[in-house]
Amino acid sequence: MEKQLPWGKMYLQNGVFICDIAKGAHIDVAEMDIWADTAAEFSAGQPFTFVVNLSDMKSVSKEARRLKVYDDERLHIIAGAIQIKSVLSKMLANFFLQMNKIPSPIKIFNEREKALAWLANLEKDYKN
User: Fold this and answer.
1) Is residue 113 classed exposed, middle or buried when 0-12, 13-18 and 19+ CB atoms within 10 A define those classes?
2) What is the pLDDT of residue 100?
3) How many domains would you assign to the chain?
């Protein structure tokens, strides 16, 4: 299952919902709504893990940062990983995570393989 969008690509990889944001993309509320709708469609009401690759993204609006997709009752998020590539991006992501009380584990990674391994362990623990 895959969905190509003007601002990125969303797909399932070994049961993990992946969102690769396109280079130079600006994310606003509409894009966050599409993310939530697609995650709900792909997960079909089942608990899931995700990776969002923000490495090449340009910006996120204040309104989108305030949107709480975790409150969407269609989404049953086990854990999520944010993939970034710069120290500044990591600082901004950590600030965002501290400002928003997110109920599921979220961790920031530079490498997708490490993110997927971390998510696999959490999902395994979740299922046990």
Assistant:
1) exposed
2) 67
3) 1
